[in-house]
Amino acid sequence: MPPDTDLHRDARRDPLHEWLAHAAAVLEVDPALVADLSDPVLDMVRDVAHGVVRPAGPMTAFLVGVVAGRAGAAGADLPGVEARVREALADVEDELRRRDGAH
After folding, report:
1. How far apart are CA 34 and CA 6, in angstroms?
2. 36 HSE (CA, 13 A, CB side)
3. Exposure string for 20-39, b = 16+ CB within 10 A, e = fewer
4. For the residues 80-102, what does the mean pLDDT come to?
5. What's the pLDDT tens digit per position in 56-74?
6. Is 17 exposed, middle or buried (0-12, 13-18, 19+ CB in 10 A)?
7. How do residues 14-49 score in pLDDT, each as one tens digit?
8. CA-to-CA distance for 10 and 32, rounded, in angstroms?
């Protein structure tokens, strides 16, 4: 039986959380970490997919995963990594707006 975490309680109500609980278990990822970061990551992917181009959403999630994995291997705080990635994405969006305004 899986541990009783927010992610596993949510999994009993919703296919997304059911999938995340299963994937976290298979990939040996702390379900509490997944529960804490799933909404911010989904929000980020939505914003990028709708603000840039759809394929940019999942590719950005991949890049964030690479950054988070590297930071985790170095002992960094993963929620802090997510905040730094959001700041970087905001900077990129600002730069894209400036470029669009220049044309």
Report:
1. 10
2. 11
3. bbeebeeeeeebebbbebbe
4. 78
5. 999 988 988 888 788 878 8
6. buried
7. 899 899 999 999 999 888 888 888 888 898 888 888
8. 12
Residue type, 81: V
What's the confidence (pLDDT) of residue 6?
58
**Tokens 């600002």 found at:** 94
Question: Which tokens in the block code for residue 91?
Answer: 């900077």
Between the alpha carbon of residue 70 and those of residues 51, 66, 74, 101, the distances in Å are: 27, 6, 6, 35
Contacts of 96 (CB under 8 A, 6+ apart): 52
Which residue type occupies 48?
V
Give the 3-state secondary structure of residue 64: helix
